[in-house]
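Supplementary Methods, section 5.1.

A reviewer requested that the exact input to the structure prediction be made available. We therefore reproduce it here, unchanged from the version used in the analyses.
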Amino acid sequence: MNDTHKFGMVALIGPPNAGKSTLMNQYLGQKVAIVSPRPQTTRNRISGILTEDDSQVVFLDTPGIHRLRGRMNRFLLDSAWSALASCDCVVVMLDAALYANKPHLIEKEIEPIVKPVTDSMRPVLIAVNKADKVKEKAALLPVMQKIAELFPTAEVFPISALKGQGTDELLAKTMDHLPEGPPMFPEDQVSTVPLRFMAAETIREKLFLTLRQELPYGTAVEIEQWEEDTERGMVTIHAVIYTAKKNHKGMIIGKQGATLKDIGSRARKEIEEMLGMKVHLELWVKVRDNWTEDSGFLRGLGLGE
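The structure derived from this sequence is encoded token-by-token as follows.
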């Protein structure tokens, strides 16, 4: 009987919108990181904790690797790369459907990842995600071949993070690379991020999903007030949505406040499920010029951590 226990950290690295958050949520069986169709949804390094009888894995979900400029984008990249220093294994997430349709993007998006990941001297696994969306399977073969050339020593796994296809095999191989050790967190803890952060992220997700392509990139959410009334079983949350331009404020509020009300209603329901208690959520929208270049403000939001 094998009575050894494993504990380790796994960094999820990859281009924007590759499915890193979806994979982590799939393993945890619940949502810890927000997910949307837009790239650069994840702005912080978010941890998810998977506890099983013989192992505990901390997944480090990181911002997408990109070549965009600006101070906030540098913060995002620093957060992603710093995960390599603290992990025991790296899972590189790649979008099979994107590269099957646009093969020229393979080298453009993956090359910036190859050297840092290789130089980290960590075991590397490649998760070729969204393989189920490639209808012509023959189109997947050259994608897999090119990826294998870029990462010659890594094992490649075609998966669907959303549907859970191939994820068990990927997890089993990940476990092979983790060291023996006792669990570091209680078995019912699923993340190291505070509830205030998760609430802010939930609001930000509803912004993405409600406005989709209309949503300006320069939005952020900050929890200004959090009051728990244990006797009434209620939490009162005051949150501010920051936007960089005045015309975007109107877009977020909507006609007679309808859009903001919808965002708040959807966020409140999910936060209630997360907290297991009633939530009174108040949202405001404020304009803060050029906040994406304000280092102090970015650190106050927890970016780059």
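The chain is about 40% helix and 25% strand. These observations are discussed further in the main text.
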